[in-house]
Amino acid sequence: MSSNIFYIGTKKSKTGKDIPVLSNGRTFFSEYNPERDIQFYANTPSVKDSSFILVAGLGDGSHINSLLELNPKAVLLILEYNKETLEYLFESKLCSPELKNNPRVSFTTPETLCTDLKNTYIPVLYGTFLYHPVKAWQLAYEESGGSSLKDMIQETLRDIAADYATQARFGKLMHTNILKNLELFSKAAAIKSPSSKASTELKDKVLYEEDIRTIVAQNADKEAAIIGAGPSLDESMPLLEQNRNRFFIISTDTAYRSLYRNGIKADMVVTLDGQNASISHFIGIDSPETIVAADICTNAAAARHLLEKGHKLYFFTTGHPLGTLVNSWYKSNFISQHETCATIFPVYTAGNGTVLSAAADIAVKAGFRSVRFFGADFAYKSGKPYTRGTYLDDTFISGCNRVVPEETSFSALCYRTELTKTDEGFTTPLLSSYKNDLLSYIASHNASFSFVKSGSNLPESKAKSFEKQVSQLSVQKTSRPLFDYGKFISFFLDGLKNNDKSLLFSILPYATWINEKEKNADIEDIFAKAVEITAFRRS
Counting CB atoms within 10 angstroms of each CB, which of 3, 29, 71, 508 has the fewest? Predict the structure, then answer.
């Protein structure tokens, strides 16, 4: 038996039951009366009140079957030592293969626990979470020197809670923004079609992923400059001005106005924000040559404003489930005829919602192999939360007076949450999570990344030749089938009206918003409200 397997065999109990023996020589349950231990484990009071249970230790699965029987609504995620151990337990038939096929049960290992827990535990559906380890298994795991499960679970639950809080606050807004943006995209894409004879301000203003790759290939001699709105941008702005032709500039929405006020027009601006205030980033700026890369959750009024001002719009998604449904629906309708056009909205990584991560992912997937970050501080420096020239300057200056000066407003912004002092200045838990997301992204991608804070010169990039990388990319134009908003919305509405459970995932953020407003809303109520808000957006 492989040393990587967490069990070393079985032992006959005093009651005649075969009990799995763990790697430390101890039995999974009592060797005297395992049936009593299993019943005690499954009848723990907290089990009855939990709809989602993370079980540590699979063993022979007897305790899992008891949990499923005593709590018929519970969904279980089973944690085992590694994949080899899971395979051993099922292939040796120590654990019944039927459990593997149970739709209420899924499996994970410490290596994939964080991701699997985020993907399976959905608070609005399951409510109370319970971590329920088998004591003998947990002891053996700790003795083996495994990473702290408690820390991993707590950190993941914090991320889930933050995501839930975002959905509870913005779930309805995101849902309506997506529907409005889909309608806008559908109309503009129809006008973009070669067969269209329409003449309008929206013509040729919608870009697809192949368009972006073509544009990037035309800038093969440049590096990507990702511009954040941190205070250090004030110091590094001269470097951007002096080396403008060296970069393909991808700005975050907050930094966009600051660049413009310094005479720098970005090649692309990335926006994720769905709130109404996000349009303030773009009001009064005359730079129609700047491509707008917008999450389909972005504020619909801002998207329409930018299109009407002459910008080319590049819609993408960062994982909103309704965006996933749109891509799936488009693929199922057109993949057989146009296999290269399976995805209508490319998927980019945004971590916990940071625009910098999304901008970096756009740059890397478009072909850039040298990426430099400007103004990516994730901290308040020199008493400032942002660089000069953002829309906040206008907002705070217009509201200041002798009693409430501009500094008071910026101080209130800095100190609205708990601050932690670092070498970079002061940071917050949210800014730290953004930073960690970006650093994790950088660590997992094969490109040259660097952070520019200040200085009088820029070192040469150590990245491979861009042109060699671009030559491997597909920049071929495709005959892409049009996205028909009317057909999609009819499909979506019909499913919602019929309470199609397969569509429930697509409306989860909106369901979370409903659940926060109406604590006792059931699935039927959620579907009914989803029908109401979706029907309102029907063409």
Answer: 3
